[in-house]
Amino acid sequence: MKRSLHAFAAVAAVATLVLAGCSGGDEGAGAGDMPALSDINVTERDKVEDGGTLRFSVSQLPTQWNTLHTAGNHVDNNTIAGFVMPINWNYAEDGTFTPNENYVLDYEVQDGPPQVVTITLNPEAHWNSGDPITWEDYEATWKVANGENEEFNVASTDGFNQVANVEMGEDEFQVVITFKSTYPDWSATWSSVQPKAAIETVDLFDNARAEDPDNNFTAGAFKFGEHDKAQRTVTLVPNDAWWGDAPKLDSVTFRELDSSASTRAFANNEIDVVSGLINSDEYQTAASRADAEIRAAGGLQWRHFTFNTNAGLLQEKGIRQAIVKGLDREAIAASDLAGLPIEPSELMLGNHFFMPGQEGYQDNSEEFKYDPEAAGKQLDELGWTLDEGAKFRTNEAGEELVVEYQLMQGVPTSENEGKLLQSDMEKIGVKVQMVNKSQDEFPGFLMDSQFGITSFTWQGTPYPMANVGQIYGCDSGSNFSNLCDEEIQSLIEQIDVEMDHNKRIELTNEVDKVIWDRVMTVPLYRRIEYVAVPQNLANFGAFGMSSHPVEEIGFTSAE
Hints:
- By secondary structure, the protein is an alpha+beta fold.
- It has 15 helices and 19 strands.
- The radius of gyration is 23 Å and the shape is globular.
């Protein structure tokens, strides 16, 4: 199985897997009002004070610090990596990008085919080992992540598998990337790079950064300070080998806490950032801090059910379809989001790739709207009937119609969605058997396919058409549905190389309709990105599709 991840690919905190303004008010988004594109209190560098510590919570400290590795593929790990690893592009609110000149001075694209991208690197950029960042690091990253060597346990080969060759340009600081044909989202693939010295063999890839981070393999404004496994904390400090503007902060800390503990810790002024406020209790607890500001932006996370098409009765497409028709997705969204300052109906998702309001969005879920009567009829036709007085359907052999839901204990959304799924299915005669899993078991049971139906969050990207293959492709280890569909695969291959933007959107909506029909994943709703911070924190918050240099994050004066 092939798994990889680049900076803006789909990433996993507990129950979140990944594929970044204006100053915000303390009330967040009003009900019925969609938030801004970003909300980070943008402040000029000279108005940000020097010094201070920014304290984060994370749901789980990494046990694998290599973000290309499937075991390092989580949101928290990528947040940390944003402070210590190369970030090639600066993203605007609309997702467009410009080079981050700390790493990339310029780029040139020849459309082809074949498409050729030439990236000119900053010769001052170097790994903390002292080795310069050169074209060889780009070549090594491509070779590891292109899927040709299945021993490299990467999360997705998207983009890398479209590259024919990576070679040196005019000198070692120029990278020439030749694609097999064309690849419109090339910048997603090359939004970061890994050090050759840490990944060039399978043993290095697996073990060079397992358990403990290694500053030799970082190249950011910050570097790793103390990693306290007993206290479950990591401290970052300014990198004395950094060649760019000096960081404003003296240190950045990450402390492992579950979601309920992190909001309480924020309210008690023990930490400074709580990302991903997803329910009313968390929101209100965070807002209770005297200097709290809840920053809000249109988020890229989406909540969904994943169906394992190799699990028991879920192998039959008709049963999967009937389950979706019997699922009240709007009621689930309303329950999950109750008490948050947003109207849940505005966040409903009818598309696996585009967010509401985003170019290309159309609701392709019409055949799978909530319709218990249609669900029951379809199950009848499949030979699963509900005898008078019986609670659950049976077939001719007398077997009950039973499916499993893997519930993550201590994750309120997972628990809530499981209970509502069970209730909805009971109304159409389907028995849902709960299988309790601990948070530590996620995403292990996904990767091992030891589940029936489960729910978690995918983190979207500024490239909605770039990662179709990561979740739905035949050769992707992140295709947790385990369905290899020839029609979907054919459409993925077309989307990957289509340079006509409108045609590419059309193809993506075409594959979206097929995915609805096959019932691989079922979107529920888009999340609003709520982030709690102190009011005087500058250049950080709810990023949406934007980004901001970490060396400019800091605090403003109390005046």
